[in-house]
């Protein structure tokens, strides 16, 4: 079993056993045609690991905090799905050039307060970026959260992400 297969197995187990806020159950995985449709609308391919998550685990509803966004259709919590959120962010960036949304950077998880974890679908490793619109300037709104999606998922599974609360008595 490859490292990616092992990671997918761990994500699947965690996804079946935990629910992010606003998700009453784990949605069914998407069909391959939905991935094809999403990529056609976006104009770029999704990273292989992200595609596997949607095809094999579920259409969102698992992962850190509010969970992975669904690919095309809105979740029960009312958050926009990944593809519509990307398109809306790109439109907004064209209207306000001081706050551009980078091409190929797909929101995959909402942190609240307008913050998103995003996959850079144009980077070789699919870096995961954090977008924080609460910064004073767009240049300070983007951070590298993880060098790739596998590292980001492992941080969630191992409870080592920056968003984890610690109770070390300090």
From TrEMBL:
Q: At the top level of its lineage, which domain of life is listed?
A: Bacteria
Please state every residue range assigned to the domain named Knr4/Smi1-like: 29-155
| Pfam families linked to this entry | SMI1_KNR4 (PF09346)
Note the SMART domains from the entry.
SMI1_KNR4
Q: Which InterPro entries match?
A: Knr4/Smi1-like_dom, Knr4/Smi1-like_sf
Q: What is this protein identified as?
A: Knr4/Smi1-like domain-containing protein
């Amino acid at each position: 079993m490859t490292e990616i297969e092992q990671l997918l197995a761990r994500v699947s187990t965690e996804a079946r056993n935990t629910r992010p806020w606003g998700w009453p159950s784990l949605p069914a995985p998407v069909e391959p045609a939905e991935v094809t449709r999403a990529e056609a609308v976006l104009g770029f391919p999704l990273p292989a690991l992200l595609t596997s998550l949607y095809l094999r685990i579920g259409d969102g509803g698992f992962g850190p905090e509010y969970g992975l966004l669904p690919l095309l259709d809105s979740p029960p919590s009312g958050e926009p799905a990944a593809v519509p959120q990307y398109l809306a962010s790109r439109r907004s960036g064209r209207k306000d050039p001081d706050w551009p949304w980078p091409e190929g950077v797909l929101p995959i998880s909402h942190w609240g307060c307008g913050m998103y974890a995003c996959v850079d679908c144009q980077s070789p490793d699919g870096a995961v970026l954090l977008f924080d619109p609460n910064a004073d300037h767009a240049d300070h709104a983007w951070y590298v959260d993880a060098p790739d999606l596998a590292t980001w998922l492992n941080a969630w599974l191992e409870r080592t992400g920056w968003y984890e609360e610690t109770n070390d008595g300090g």
